[in-house]
UniProtKB/TrEMBL annotation:
A family per Pfam: PDZ_2
Protein name, per record: Serine protease
PANTHER family in the record: SERINE PROTEASE FAMILY S1C HTRA-RELATED (PTHR22939), SERINE PROTEASE HTRA2, MITOCHONDRIAL (PTHR22939:SF129)
GO BP annotations listed: protein quality control for misfolded or incompletely synthesized proteins
UniProt xrefs under SMART domains: PDZ
Amino acid sequence: MADLNASILPSLSSALADIVARTKPAIVSVHSHRSRASGFVWKPGLIVTADEPLAEEGEVSIRFSEGTDRPARIAGRDHTTDIALLRFDAENSVPITLSSVIPDLGSLSVVVAAEQGVPTAALGMVSLIGDRWRSIRGGEIDARIELDARLRRRQEGGLVLNAAGEAVGMAVQGVRRILVIPSATIDRVAGRLETHGRIARGYLGVGLQPVELEDGLGAMVMSVDRAGPSAAAGIRQGDIIVGWNNEKLSGVRSLMRALGPDSVGSVVDVAIRRAGAPVQVKLTIGERAET
C-alpha cells in the first residue's frame, strides 16, 4: 500500500497543480466599493463574476494574477442566477473555454479563484447532482450541482474545474452549501447580458394567491396593476386563474415559471372563473421593470 500511495499521490498532486497553473491567466480578482470577489475571462474583454458580492454602485476594477490592474464596468447583471458580466480592455487577456460536461457525483473538483490578485485553489468533491432547478429569486439553473469544499466570500465567482481540467461552472455560496452555476447557464445568461445588458422577465401585473378548488388548483387575483397587462386583458380582482394556454393550472409557481425571458410579448389564453362563471381572455405578457 505504501508503494501504491507513493506512486498515486504525487501524480495526482502534480496533475492538480498543472490544472491550476493552466487556468491562472484567466482568473481575476474583482474589486467593487469595499467588496471583493473572483471572476474569469469569459470572452475577450468580458469577465464573468458572481452577482451577489458585486457592489450596487461605485467603480469596479479587476486584477490579474501577474498583478495588472484594469478598470472595468458592469455590462449587465442577473440577480436571479447570480451571474454578472463586466467589460474591460481586452489587451493580452486569455479567455477560458467552458465545458457543458456535468461532473459525476463523488468526483473531484478544483475551485480556482483569487484574492487581491493572488490565485487560490481549493479541492472539493461533488456532493450532489440534480436536474434543472429554479433559484429562490426565480432564475433557471440548468443543473443542480453542489460542492463539498471550503469557499471564502472573496472566492465567489471562481472557476470550477473537473479532474480533467475542464471548466464546468462558477462557484457561489448558497444557503449552507457551495453551489456550482453550470457552464450552460453561464453561456445562456452571459450571452443575453452581453447583447441586452439585462435579463428580461415576464410581467402579468397581478398579485396572486394559491387556492384549492374542488377540481384542482387555482390562483386568485388579489390585486391588479391598473397599468399592467392583466388589467388591459380585463382581468379583475377576485378572479381565479384556472388555465393557461389551454392547460389546467398546476399552481402559482408553475405560472411564474412560464414568465421567463422568452415569454415577453407573447399572447396567452387565460381561463378564469369570475363569480363561479367561466371566462376566457387573451393576455399579452409584459416586461417586468428593473428594480
